[in-house]
UniProtKB/TrEMBL annotation:
Ranges for domain Plastocyanin-like: 32-146, 158-300, 381-521
Protein name: L-ascorbate oxidase
The UniProt record lists the keyword Glycoprotein: yes
Keywords: Glycoprotein, Signal
Entry superkingdom: Eukaryota
Species, as recorded: Gossypium raimondii
Leader sequence residues: 1-22
Family: Belongs to the multicopper oxidase family.
Pfam family, one: Cu-oxidase_3
GO molecular function terms noted in the UniProt entry: copper ion binding; oxidoreductase activity
Keyword Transferase in annotation: no
Length: 551
């Protein structure tokens, strides 16, 4: 009963209308995207607001809800938002990336329609156009468990979203110009927590409130564009319970490294003296450490937060070791009433291995980032539309990169990158990072098993150390400097799916690709038809609509 009341309150807080249409409920949202002045670090910046908010509103839903979001673009430039972590089964049309969707023109709107099918957990949304993400347009996206499916912990007293990220005071237009000129963004100016930074002068309003003796859920997401962050709660430990849609073994942590694009859910119990405490976020793997704080206030508490902050960890080896403590909770249920551990991924034969190595090179004097020697460029026609309309050969070529990095990985060419994936193949992807900067990757449309991570170069014998039992099923993975990471997944979700760097200057300058998964049956059982009202652009604009799949 308590969770039902909580979920109903969340719907009301999000300003949505709930409609039950005989099956799964449908939630309707209307978003107005505008410019507005923001100042998370105290310096006024031209930001991007959703319904006047920075960060944007929480999008609250429950497993299998149908979500309809009508986005009105009131900016003076194209805009597009993606739903990071939502799998869009059979429906890459709604993924909201430039390889599948035309951006929303200024003064126009587009209505996203998707279902959070068989998912539960903590996610986020953010813009993918230009450098918009640097100044807003992002927010939390939560998928609550159905009442039928118990979660492996007691209902918390409240459910909070904590969005942390780096911030650049230059603004998105200047950041874009820097990248277009072939230069590096450099280091961030600071860090924010839900768009704010505590001043520590005794006048700060709390980000969150807690009541002594009660336990609270915090959904922590790194919505920044470049920097890994360490998050910790002054005087309190965090019990990790969920990560990017998977319940985890419930270990306690004093601090957690949250890499760009990642989301964790933790439980924090208010078991300290009732007063103010800081939640702290610090930059990781940067020459100059930057720390920001926010206030957590005990109800009826007395006393300011101590100025003595808990120290951050040192070095990336600590972070690598922390990754190895993350384990899937095989005794809990997923979004469906079947045990998560029933999928025995460790016993499936690998049908294809793809090794991707990132590089930073200059092309015609300008900085570009590449995968296996090719730096992705965005065509004017979305890849998925070109494929659906039968004009793919005029827009891109399949398999422009090899499955292994070239022997001379210093040469870089510019082209769209589309991997032709065989439907339902079980694939191993190795990320090799030969650079000194940490990497963070996301794959749309899927969750994968993060089975291995270590220093040095990958080789086949490294498989002996894979976690083939309880690796967490997730959608992002970090790769430490001069190290590798390995993931396993079945490409069973038809569509055009983006594998991208979550480090946004790298994404903007080419460190991404797409995986095309087509069913040989060309059937509605495997993929939905092109939606009515979809925006068209490029060479498909004005072309007759292809005949739909019939069954």
């Amino acid at each position: 009963m308590a969770r039902l009341m909580l979920i109903s309150m969340l719907f009301l807080l999000a300003g949505s209308m709930l409609m039950v249409q005989g099956g799964d409920p449908t939630l309707f949202f209307e978003w107005n995207v505008t410019y507005g002045t923001i100042a998370p670090l105290g310096v006024p910046v031209k930001g991007i607001l959703i319904n006047g908010q920075f960060p944007g509103p929480n999008l609250n839903s429950t497993t299998n809800n149908n979500i309809v979001v009508n986005v009105f673009n009131n900016l003076d430039e194209p805009f597009l938002v993606t739903w990071d972590g939502v799998q869009h089964r059979k429906n890459s049309w709604q993924d909201g990336v430039l390889g599948t969707n035309c951006p929303i023109p200024p003064g126009k709107n587009y209505t996203y329609k998707f279902q959070v099918k068989d998912q539960v957990g903590s996610y986020m949304y953010y813009p993918v156009t230009a450098m918009h993400k640097a100044v807003g347009g992002f927010g939390g996206l939560r998928v609550n468990s159905r009442l039928l499916i118990p979660v492996p912990y007691a209902d918390p007293a409240d459910d909070y979203t904590l969005l942390v990220g780096d911030f650049f005071n230059k603004g998105h237009t200047s950041l874009k110009k820097i990248l277009d000129s072939g230069r590096n963004l450099g280091r961030c100016d600071g860090v924010h927590l839900n768009g704010k930074v505590a001043k520590g002068d005794g006048k700060d309003e709390p980000l969150f409130t807690m009541e002594a003796g009660k336990t609270y859920k915090y959904r922590i997401c790194n919505t920044g564009i470049k920097t890994s962050l360490n998050v910790r709660f002054q005087g309190h430990t965090m019990k990790l319970v969920e990560m990017e849609g998977s319940h985890t073994m419930q270990n306690d942590y004093d601090s957690l490294d949250v890499h760009v694009g990642q989301c964790f859910s933790v439980l924090v119990t208010a078991n300290q003296e009732p007063r103010d405490y800081y939640v702290v976020a610090s930059t990781r793997f940067t020459r100059r450490e930057v720390t920001a704080t926010g206030i957590i206030r005990y109800k009826n508490g007395k006393g300011a937060a101590s100025s003595e902050l808990p120290p951050p960890p040192v070095g990336w080896a600590w972070s690598l070791n922390q990754f190895r403590t993350f384990r899937w909770n095989l005794t809990s249920n997923a979004a469906r009433p079947n045990p998560q551990g029933s999928y025995k991924y460790g016993s499936i034969n690998i049908t294809r291995t793809i090794k991707l190595a990132n590089t930073a090179q200059r092309v015609d004097g300008k900085l570009r980032y590449a995968l296996n020697g090719v730096s992705y460029v965005e065509p004017t026609t979305p890849l998925k539309l070109a494929e659906y309309y039968g004009v793919a050969d005029k827009v891109f070529k399949y398999d422009t990169i090899p499955d292994e990095p070239p022997s001379d990985n210093t040469r870089v060419t510019l082209a769209p990158i589309v991997l032709n994936m065989t439907h339902r193949n079980f694939v191993e992807i190795i990320f090799e990072n030969h650079e000194t900067a940490i990497q963070s990757y996301h794959l749309s449309g899927y969750s994968f098993f993060a089975v291995g991570m270590d220093i040095g170069k990958w080789s086949p014998e490294k498989r002996m150390n894979y976690n083939l039992l309880d690796a967490v099923s997730r959608h992002t993975i970090q790769v430490f400097p001069n190290s590798w990471s390995a993931i396993l997944l079945t490409f069973d979700n038809c569509g055009m799916w983006n594998l991208r760097s979550e480090i946004w200057d790298r994404h903007y300058l080419g460190q991404q690709l797409y995986a095309s998964v087509i069913s040989p049956n060309r059937s509605l059982k495997d993929e939905y038809n092109l939606p009515e009202g979809v925006l068209t652009c490029g060479i498909v604009q004005g072309m007759p609509r292809p005949p739909p799949f019939s069954s």
